[in-house]
Amino acid sequence: MGVFLGCIADDFTGATDLAGLLARSGVKVSLRMGIPKENPENSRTSAIEVIALKCRTSPVGEAVDETLGALAWLRQAGAQRFFWKYCSTFDSTAKGNIGPVAEALMAALETDQTIYCPAFPENGRSIYMGNLFVGELPLAESPMKDHPLTPMRDSNLMRLLAPQVAKPVGLVNHLTVAKGADAIREKISDMQTSGISHLVVDAVANVDLYSIAEACMDMKLLTGGSAIAMPLPALFQKQGLLAVAGENEPWPELADTSIVLSGSCSAMTREQVHRYLKQAAGYKLDPLHLAKHGMDAAREWLLLQPAESKKMIYATAEPAEVGKAQEALGIERAGKLVEDALADLAVLARNMGVRRFVIAGGETSGAVTKALGIDSLRVGPEIAPGVPWNLSQSAGETIAITLKSGNFGTGDFFETALRKLKPDA
After folding, report:
1. Which tens digit of pLDDT belongs to each residue from 121-170?
2. Residues whose CB is less than 8 angstroms from the CB of residue 294 and which lie 6 or more positions away in sequence, other chains included
3. Cβ pair 256, 307 in contact under 8 A
4. CA 186 to the chain's CA centroid
5. Which is it for strands 311-314 and 258-262: parallel, antiparallel or unpaired?
6. Is the peptide bond before 97 cis (omega within 30 degrees of 0)?
7. At CA 387, angle to CA 384 and CA 389, rounded to 5?
8. CA–CA separation, 330 vs 142, rounded Å?
9. CB atoms within 10 A of CB 202
């Protein structure tokens, strides 16, 4: 049948999150890191194509241009429906990039209305009366309020979105959503008549996601976190728009050699790093030390670790420590020093024989996958909601890699991930 659903994600961990949830349906999903260089007709495409970009914190103009480039490739590949994926905590600033990108995609697709639903109930993200919650906390009271790049100081999605877009913003609240797909369709139609283009939609449980997806599946463009896309494959199959999935290919055997590379400083990743250090050797990267002395010490440490050992290199730190480095070096330089270091160490680990990589953090994931020369991933088993293992090729070697968003997973994520991917998988 060719490509039907084309997806664009604003960072690499978000893309794997989306691809993993879509793959639950059994439909073959292709995940591409960046806009493919080859034309679709020269590439093996899947019914669902996901393009991972690294534009969450790019200047607005760059983010728009990059997403439009991804859209052009997906349209050339034959996609009929499109999904713009951003973080379930709506990571953004007053200038963008969520709204400007969505509006640019709408213009290119000649559609005048779309929805915004970053809810992910399985991971504790819910929207009620237009306000985004992280667990039981409003977004602006959650650890996201101190995010180093996109501090979220307002929980209301309409207020966050309105400065980013030119057309009116409205709400489909939970009183409507709870009534089901027909009620949602009717509300959306009424708002379209009133000229409201950008619709924030409440969702507090998976049942809401299914109702919303059923009501909105005929829209050319949907936007949100990965969870709102999860019901789409089954709905499209029911309409005969997607073929029923075939059997999955078996995974190859991989050497039982691993490394955890963590650049995220989220509260959940801090807990995960703390727990994994109880059973693994660890090396902490300090941006201030990197700026003064470079990477020789980190490389020497890694070279002393046996390939089969449990090991982790991390820049994960408390907010005060992160702030100190950013004050001394600047936010951009501090982040780049860490990203470049972890990317360099990933290549060294691969050359040492490591074949299983656990990467924590969106910016880190982008830097590492680029350094490893990864341009596409085969989506495999899910470790936690929205975090799958993936297979890829790096310098002629088959590797398994998982790209974890900072806030995802439970405290034992690192050990669970490596336990799940056994040598005979």
Report:
1. 988 999 999 999 999 999 999 988 888 778 889 999 999 999 999 999 99
2. none
3. no
4. 31
5. parallel
6. yes
7. 105
8. 24
9. 24
